[in-house]
Amino acid sequence: MKLLKIIFIVCLVCSVVFFVGGIVFLKNFNINQHIPQVVEAVAKSTGRQLTVGRAGLAFSLSKGLMLTLQDASLTDDKKFSDQLFLKIPQAWLTVDVGAIIHQRKIVISDMTFIAPEIRIIRAKDGRINAASMNPLSVSSAAPVVQAAAPGQLAAFPVLLVKRIDIKGAIVHYTDHLFDPAISLNIDKIDMKVMNFSLTDPFQVSLNAALFSETQNVMVSGKMGLDLIKLAGRLESLQVEVSVAQISAFKLNAALPMIAPLGFKQANGVLRGQFKEARIGAKGLEHLDAQGVLKLSDVILEGGNILAAGLNSISMFPGLMEAVLAQFPAKTQENIKRGITFVDGVEIILKADQQKIALEKAELFTHEVMASANGTVSLAGELNLSSAVFISSDVSKIIVEKISDIGSLKKEDGRIYIPFFISGMMLSPKVKPDMDYLTKHLLVHRGKQELQKVLKDPAVSDAVGDLFNTIFKSK
Questions:
Q1: Which H or E element spans position 373?
Q2: DSSP state of 125
Q3: What is the pTM of this model?
Q4: What confidence category does residue 102 fall into, taking pLDDT thresholds of 50, 70 and 90?
């Protein structure tokens, strides 16, 4: 018993000495002396320059091992820009030492980033700067996992971060696939990641401000990483954007292709779902997504849709001027000011890695309903069929002034004008369907001329039906 007591006391003393010695070592250990080695390792593995203002290492019984970082930055690939790719003013993380010793796992209890900034650039060839870093050399990494199934990160340590908090982040995005390039900022980003892993999908939630002074974007879903291929994936990601908080100035400045619409305000929401998306070194590799946009109380100051529809019918030059005086005073004012007050907008779309398919796109005003369907490539190339329906009361005014326009009326009394939209988003080409318009005009005028020649109404109607049959069959 006495021997066991002595052994116990010796072990206890050794443990205390080891523990106290470890604390003294950590308190006197200057991690900043080793930063140059880290900088060199990052340069070799990523091809970029890392800068660290100051780092710190501490230990506490309650939090474990804590690493702090201040004023860190990473340069961008010179092929994309001379600016910083990543900037982190302040960050810290705590490590579970017990998991490293007993489970051979790196378990980080929490990781926090304050006001980081990242710059994402897509080149004209579709490459993305975030994926241009050199892949980490598998042979140079110390193997920690003894065996791994195919596709696992056998050369990387098992890493789990229980919680990541990102507060006040900013993402600068530039897309050179468009000319001029799209340039926008997503700021006020607060992001939480739970159970981050290098091998398994992890849960993500995010709030951010897009074209807004306040947060108007909510995102939740799963993400995953592949460090060997430097790729990422999204799974079941839900996105919701509140349109009412969008600043017209910020929107029009960032997206020059919609600036001609003169967007001023709108109420509504955009909801999207990314069922699956994969992003690799060459950009978007796979996408399966869908979205719904519903708006109300929209004001567009880039032109009046009714006037645009009537002016597009080249076979009736001066049509707009001829009927303008017949419209109600409010409609006349809107046309003269080039304003469209939109009662509602509904858009349903699906997207893959090549294009966006508009399954439904409708816009309603008091005088007009416009619709479109077709595809838009991710490079901005348009291939759309569109149409404008003029309300029955406005159609009646137009037909009373110019009877030939009656040939374009549907059974519900609305004038129907079909269009084709092609070209690029920044310079779309809008052309009326002249084949449709010409056929209907010829049928209408043919009937009028026959009625003058044929006194018998029954005969005139029979010949008119024959005209309709001939043109509809073509």
A1: strand 368-377
A2: T
A3: 0.78
A4: low
